[in-house]
């Protein structure tokens, strides 16, 4: 879902209930995905399969077993793509020495009032699409979310993004408090 064509351009963040002993959980099931805010990108069977197959493999590697009957944990995912903007920086057309103008020591080229600031400042904004896969786990007995992780990155091409979902979901699941068996 989140694609920057280069290697590991994804950022991962996680949070959990600190007092939870995750070793007490042995079974899991899936809740329906939350209403995605990016239906045009990831509301399709291929994206859903890429997310669930990868997450199931990662959960089983951590010793959890899928169970429809009274699972310990209930997982769900949310896929979001939204528009963002970031500053664009450009250099001074006069080079790193600044422009001609006032400088405290002389008239001429220097680092005066119009110098380095033009070199380092933002010159505009660029719009881009940011994608996020969020996976959360609820304790079925207490019906409270006990863990949540998010993988985020730039989406440049929807088809390529769908093909990258397994990589992103693996990164998200690496944040889960139970380590994968070696």
From TrEMBL:
Q: Can you name this protein?
A: DUF4136 domain-containing protein
InterPro entries the record matches: DUF4136
Spell out the Pfam families in the cross-references.
DUF4136
Q: Which residues form the DUF4136 domain?
A: 17-177
Q: Which organism is it from?
A: Parapedobacter indicus
């Amino acid at each position: 879902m989140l694609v920057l064509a280069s290697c590991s351009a994804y950022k991962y963040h996680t949070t959990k209930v600190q007092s939870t002993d995750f070793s007490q959980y042995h079974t899991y099931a899936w809740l329906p995905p939350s209403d995605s805010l990016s239906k045009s990108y990831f509301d399709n069977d291929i994206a859903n399969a890429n997310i669930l197959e990868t997450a199931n493999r990662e959960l089983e590697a951590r010793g959890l077993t899928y169970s429809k009957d009274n699972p310990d944990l209930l997982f769900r995912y949310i896929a979001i793509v939204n528009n963002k903007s970031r500053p664009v920086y450009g250099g001074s057309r006069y080079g790193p020495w600044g422009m001609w103008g006032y400088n405290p020591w002389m008239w001429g080229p220097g680092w005066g009032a119009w110098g380095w600031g033009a070199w380092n400042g933002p010159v505009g904004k660029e719009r881009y699409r940011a994608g996020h896969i969020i996976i959360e786990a609820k304790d079925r007995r207490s019906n409270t979310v006990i863990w949540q992780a998010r993988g985020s990155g730039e989406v440049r091409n929807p088809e390529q993004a769908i093909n990258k979902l397994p990589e992103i979901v693996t990164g998200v699941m690496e944040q889960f408090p139970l380590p994968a068996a070696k």
